[in-house]
Design brief:
single chain, alpha+beta, Collagenase (Catalytic Domain), Neutral endopeptidase, domain 2, 2 domains, four-stranded mixed beta sheet, 27 helices, 10 strands, 50% helix
Length: 686
């Protein structure tokens, strides 16, 4: 489905979903673990280290027609899907009546794959919801309908619920200033395109996408059998444009200090327009005494539209997004139309992925830990987990030593930083306790109903946390996810099983490679607890200032220099990377690489690493890092990510090495080589 999460800087600060691919993904690793054949040694490392490490692969590797980008993440995700498909087929063949989780996984997947049955049913499975929307007669009905549709389904990149069409996003976790109780967080939503600028920007590219989006909306209404589809499309689009006008920007959304704690009874006064008591009752939130309102300016604006815009516009908007949310589980015409806009127009993808891959993703999204349990049992042995945990220990130790060595940090701030590091909870592979899916009803042959019930199951699970002790061991990623995450509110990290595998990590691989690749990922996530966002949370996950003013001023100044460095990267003549939008991830890349390098050197116990494949240990370390960001991306997707993502494009993350003194020595980098930075200009934060 999608990567669903709350704020990237608050709860799911995500590593980039599309990490790069090497030929080593499909072949036995070389002695060094790095992909020598995929390099381009004709390039001077100090001129373009990404091309030096990855140029051969980039020249030889096309982006598959069904992908917006291609890299290690794509390769590993596809391999994981193949493994999961085999596990499901084994389970179905064996007859898993005694294993409820395995049965539900099989039934969900097979129901989605039964295209003939889905075609035969047509739009009928969605008819009850559409009839309910058509029956809205007043503002009270509207509020109840909006409340009933709230789900724990928010977009990591935008702090919103892009593509779900819900007016608000809701998720539940511990309070910003109260680490002992869970609160519902309320976020802006309602848009069908990725971000407010898609509606408001005057650029020709955005103007063209708006035309294509309106045509898409009209087609969806036509496919669903609505009369006057052009009029309905115009009303729905006009309403979304007004929603975009009150939305916070991407950068504004990252400022945790704008969030406000509102009591339940504050909502009608602070955000008039909606019937909040009815909305909260329909949403199952009527017993929540308080809310963390992540967008305290946007929520009143969206609520106001509920009172000022026509009920016809609201009915059209609700119907549109009911169809959009369900399209993947409806007949092929709906699937193809969504692909035409969301994949081809928005992301530049020529061909749709095979249905079995999509089915595997939807199954993983609906029954994430049930699928993950099958995967971990087969593909994540105890030896791998133990060695990965040992590497985590090395990285934590190395980061602690970096804190000790900081000359600019006061003893007061240092002691609190060390306390936070000491209480960091790191999950590797899979959670300590698996979710219980026994209350989720999966019905063979009911593809759409299964998806709807799975979303409702997850939402109710989130609501239940309001009445339970805070679980600092909660996982926010499934074991089969090729990614990693820092959770500042929990002071915790998750490293799913699917990313702790070759080529990122191999229990038999060269240390320089493992530390340069997986070690840098681990260091990246550790450092997020101390970056421009994570540094605002203490050892218990409480939003609190534990820095002295002088220390924070120094930290911000160092971060500003890094923002300027990334502002200078310009992949298009008319578009640059936003150094402030990507600052947290860039800080984490620099700090993570520094920490991984320290840990690698510590692992040698003072010895000199052997020469392998013609490269020294330090050279292999940095090449492994750059190859872990090896990637190709379509222009449309790159433009979208620059507008919406908190991560810099992979080609620029690969040259993070230019901020480490050791890289200059390893490759004899000198001025006037293009990547050369004078020592005073290198980012020195941790």
């Amino acid at each position: 489905m999608k990567e669903n999460s709350p704020s990237p800087k608050l709860a799911l600060i995500l590593l980039a979903a599309a990490l790069a691919a090497t030929s080593a993904c499909k072949t036995a690793p070389l002695a060094s673990g790095i992909d020598v054949a995929g390099m381009d040694k004709s390039v001077i490392p100090g001129d373009d280290f990404n091309a030096y490490a990855n140029g051969g692969w980039m020249k030889a590797t096309p982006i598959p027609a069904d992908k917006a980008s291609y890299g290690i993440g794509s390769v590993l995700a596809d391999e994981t899907r193949k493994r999961l498909l085999a596990l499901i087929q084994e389970s179905v063949k064996a007859g898993s009546a005694t294993d409820n989780d395995a049965r539900e996984v099989g039934d969900f997947y097979l129901s989605f794959m039964d295209e003939a049955a889905i075609e035969l049913k047509g739009i009928a499975p969605l008819k009850p919801e559409l009839d309910s929307i058509a029956a809205i007669k007043n503002r009270q009905d509207l509020s109840r309908t909006i409340g009933a549709q709230l789900r724990a389904d928010v977009d990591a990149l935008n702090n919103t619920n892009f593509e779900t069409g819900n007016l608000f996003g809701v998720w539940v976790t511990q309070g910003l200033t109260d680490p002992f109780h869970s609160y519902p967080y309320l976020l802006q939503g309602g848009l069908g395109m990725p971000e407010r600028d898609y509606y408001l920007s005057t650029s020709p590219r955005m103007a063209e996408l708006r035309k294509q989006y309106q045509a898409h909306i009209q087609t969806m209404f036509q496919l669903a059998g609505f009369d006057k589809p052009a009029e309905r499309a115009a009303r729905a689009f006009a309403l979304e444009t007004k929603m975009a006008g009150v939305h916070a920007t991407r950068v504004e959304s990252e400022d945790v200090h704008t969030a406000a704690l509102w009591k339940r009874d504050d909502l009608p006064a602070k955000a008039p327009g909606l019937d909040w008591p009815d909305l909260l009752t329909a949403a199952g939130l009527n017993d929540a005494p308080a809310f963390v309102v992540w967008h305290p300016k946007a929520i009143p604006g969206l609520s106001r539209l509920a009172a000022t815009e026509s009920l016809d516009s609201w009915r059209d908007w609700l119907a549109l997004h009911a169809v959009e949310r369900s399209a993947a589980f409806l007949p092929k015409a709906f699937v193809d139309e969504r692909f035409h806009f969301y994949s081809q127009a928005l992301r530049g993808i020529p061909e749709q992925r095979p249905r079995w891959q999509r089915g595997m993703d939807y199954t993983s999204g609906a029954l994430g830990e049930a699928v993950g349990k099958l995967y971990a049992q087969r593909y994540f042995p105890a030896e791998t987990k133990a060695k990965a945990q040992a590497m985590v220990g090395d990285l934590v130790t190395a980061f602690g030593r970096r804190i000790d060595a900081l000359t600019w940090m006061s003893s007061e701030t240092r002691s609190r930083a060390k306390a936070k590091l000491a209480t960091l909870k790191v999950g590797v592979g899979y959670p300590d306790r698996w979710l219980d899916y026994s209350s989720l009803e999966i019905v063979s042959g009911d593809a759409l109903g299964n998806a709807q019930r799975a979303e409702l199951f997850d939402y109710r699970r989130q609501l239940a946390k309001l009445h339970e002790p805070v679980d600092r061991g909660e996982w926010w990623m499934t074991p089969q996810t090729v990614d990693a995450v820092n959770l500042p509110l929990q002071n915790a990290l998750n490293f799913p099983a699917a990313i702790v595998q070759p080529p990122f990590f191999d229990v038999n691989a060269d240390a320089a490679h493992n530390y340069g690749s997986m070690g840098a990922i681990i260091g990246h996530e550790i450092s997020h607890s101390f970056d421009d966002q994570g540094s605002q949370f203490d050892a218990e996950g409480r939003l609190a200032n534990w820095w002295t003013k002088e220390d924070m001023d120094h930290f911000k100044a160092a971060g500003e220099a890094l923002a300027v460095q990334f502002d200078a990267y310009k992949p298009f003549a008319d578009l640059s990377v936003n150094g402030h939008q990507t600052l947290s991830e860039n800080i984490a890349d620099v700090a993570g690489l520094l920490t991984a390098y320290d840990a690698y050197r510590l692992s040698l116990h003072g010895a000199t690493d052997a020469l392998k494949d013609g490269f020294t240990g330090d050279q292999r370390f940095f090449i492994a890092f750059a190859q872990s960001w090896r990637s190709k991306i379509r222009d449309e997707e790159l433009r979208k990510l620059i507008a919406t993502d908190g991560h810099a494009p992979e080609q620029y993350r690969a040259v993070t090495v230019r901020n480490l003194d050791a890289w200059y020595g390893a490759f004899q980098v000198r001025a006037p080589q293009r990547l050369y930075l004078a020592p005073k200009d290198r980012a020195r934060i941790w």
